Sucrose-phosphate synthase (Escallonia herrerae), 1066 residues
Amino acid sequence: MAGNEWINGYLEAILDSGASAIEENKQVSQVNVRDRGHFNPTKYFVEEVVTGVDETDLHRTWIKVVATRNTRERSSRLENMCWRIWHLTRKKKQLEWEDFQRLANRRWEREQGRRDVTEDMSEDLSEGEKGDFLGEAIAIDSPRKRFQRNFSNLEVWSDNNKEKKLYIILVSLHGLVRGENMELGRDSDTGGQIKYVVELARALARMPGVYRVDLFTRQVSSPEVDWSYGEPTEMLTAGPEDADAADVGESSGAYIIRIPFGPRDKYLNKELLWPHIQEFVDGALAHILNMSKVLGEQIGGGQPIWPYVIHGHYADAGDSAALLSGALNVPMVLTGHSLGRNKLEQLLKQGRQSKEDINSTYKIMRRIEAEELSLDAAELVITSTKQEIDEQWGLYDGFDVKLEKVLRARARRGVNCHGRYMPRMVVIPPGMDFSNVMVQEDNDVDGELTGITNTDGASPKAIPPIWSEVMRFLTNPHKPMILALSRPDPKKNITTLLKAFGECRPLRDLANLTLIMGNRDDIDELSAGNAGVLTTVLKLVDKYDLYGQVAFPKHHKQNDVPEIYRLAAKTKGVFVNPALVEPFGLTLIEAAAHGLPMVATKNGGPVDIHRALNNGLLVDPHDQQAIANALLKLVSEKNLWQECQKNGWKNIHLFSWPEHCRTYLTRVAACRMRHPMWQTDTPADELAEEESLNDSLKDVQDMSLRLSVDGDKTSLNESIDLAAAGGDPELQDQVKRVLSKMKKPETGSQDSERDTEVVDKVPSKYPMLRRRRRLIVIALDCYDNDGAPEKKMIQIVRDVFSAIKLDPQIARSSGFALSTAMSISELTAFLKSGNIKANEFDALICSSGSEVYYPGTYTEEEGKLSPDPDYASHIDYRWGSDGIKKTIWKLMNTPEPSEEKSAHSSSPIEEDVNSSNSHCLSYLIKDISKAKKVDGMRQKLRMRGLRCHLMYCRNSTRMQVIPLLASRAQALRYLFVRWRLNVANMFVILGETGDTDYEELISGTHKTLIMKGVVENGPEELLRTTGSYIRDDIVPGESPLVAYTSEGATTEEIVNALRQVSKSGA
């Protein structure tokens, strides 16, 4: 056929140009558009059109085609559009294939992880128990009674807990949060989550046993938003309404606490907040420590009142809550609200964007990593539905439904899990406030509606304005109203509902249909998806001639929604939610509270709601006839309608805020409760009081001085302290008086050397950190190709000491710390080689943050430094060194599926015993080419239930694995919590690169000084795999808290940079 010649031309062009090259995203060979002396349009389109196709242009092209009268031009435009469709189809198929491969690899990894866990943990069991264990993952799924029995063993929260006086912290970072006149819908970040967390804070503060609730969010002082978002504190409620006056304290109640982080004068979308997360954590930590002290004075008998739980909402707050929980060692709870992996899967299935484009737009990989980190730290994950657990959280490395049940069963039996852990997932539906919901009276409905529609000239009865707005669409507003309330999103399936209504004549005769589809001024101004739905709705109304039977008002306010429900209930109507998938279905609960039976999708949360309320029917959202039949059944059978209404009212209390909070507190109370328990019985505190020497030394410490008793020359750090005091005669007199109080030796033969020996061996009661106002932290990762520290680091340390000495203001009350991947033995040997004493430093953070030492404080009898025992117990949480050691060895020696196996390949790692300790597994990297990326290894460890920090360090010559709560950055926060040395008063000195934990040390409220030209090499290429999040998602591009020095900086330049950054942070 002549009309098909252009199709044949396309096929010939595909063959000539090489379709395989297009499919494989290879460069298509240049096509000569002038072939045999004439223009070849098909080859031109292969070259110019196919490679630049954009799905959004198709509709525009079609409109132009329809409007074109010239046959030849019309044909060309059709060719253009067909090529676009062809390429789009091929692009989608390619993305589908990539998606299939990715999911297949993930399933393989998951199964391999389960096999490894089974093999490792079955070694503990007898032969009889092994059989039970291997089938445990399946067997534990079936009996529901087992879950019910466990829950019944929990002590339900009641008024008996009234004396507990708990301090609870909620975190919700993005959007605009305030207690009254919430601007819901102002943007995509200010939605239902904001309302939820504010109401949760209020409801928890009213529960017995809860003294104070703090809701942390971001402080925004910007002219583009209301001034109220810049207020640091906002009270939500003063506490329980029925509480005695004695129970309501000065600081009790619920409060919004706004922490400044990021640019102070800008309101940022949630995708732009990621680089500033650590700054929020430090600011929140300062507030928590202050509030814990205040509450301790009010209700704790002088002892700090630590948070009972820290609850993060959404990925950004989950990341923050994980760090806060780790710094304070208190339980963490997580609510995801919406999940990154689920969103990524949906966007990839649409085929419109590549993974790289999605990540660039939504920072989706940074969000997913935050959610994974939250799973690492969380004791409890709260979901709205069981579907969220199985189908959404099941996509994450850090949660495996089967493995979680196995580990839980083993824990109940007291069997060792080798450090493996999965967070507990529980379904707690969101609460609602039903205080304003009134039970409907049936006898006044006709009167109220007639008041609007009367024609006898009488004054109409006062009714809500939204009723008038709805009923102006309807010929007979007395008929039962079928109400749908949702955004005009294709996923909400509104068009299928409208078709079901339009094609069912009995339903049209019995009822009206009201569609509340958000707010709009002009359909053309909406997004393509929303505009498409609304346009289709208008066309269907016209197609089925539904004028006078369907209402679709353009505007409504938030406080109009209850009135809309009330109107539908007065007409004996039905609420319908036909969404393809509904994560929860809060509107179903709202409707039930107002007396409306429901027809809802059987996919997602409505299943759980229906099970609890039993107030309607579930349908297949794809089955148009089933939707119509269910609506007709409820509208026509009055007895069924009344039964559903009564069931909804009878069971609605299950979704009230008091019920939600009671279940919430019951579940949280079942978590492993922990909080800081500082040891005070260390050997440093056992010095006899009668010697009075310790008191004298303590007086010296109060003045932040270190003195050389025997008159020898002072050390570097001591000279700084003396310089700080040198200009103060009164302070020098105090020092002399302190020295004169020290006991003289009884025999004349004992000289000053004996005094020096006594002073050196007697540990002070507390580290000097306790008296410091500033801390200079040197965290330079200078190593040679063998991983040994470079000698230039000694000179840099001396330069830093000298630089601080130049400014008495900085030198006064300043201390020093050294943060390194070296073990304590390696570090002290290195310092000794440079004639620098260990006690020049107030703290030594060793082995990548797995140990903290205080020279001169925690020492053994032979003078050997001892690690801080409190820090050791602090980071021991979820640390399973045996399981991790075995798994690391297996993973590092197992080639990837894409790698070739060699019969003679040797292990790429070797255990580094000298650098290892009880909380650090250190390995030598023998073959860097076989080293696996940090995020890839972390993924595999999470799949096996192992939670830890893995990093490459010392110029890529070592790999170290430390506990989840340990890191060099978190060690600084520990010093803040333990010794009250605010992180904001710390100065961290770094190079331009460093170990793979380097990025964590840049962000935060501390001041950062980056010295150029000092650290030349770092293992950054081993940090992330292709397609992961990038450095800009962790580290802010520009920050007033970061300063730089030029290469080969002098002491004057160093001190000037410190002065500069100190002023910026003031």
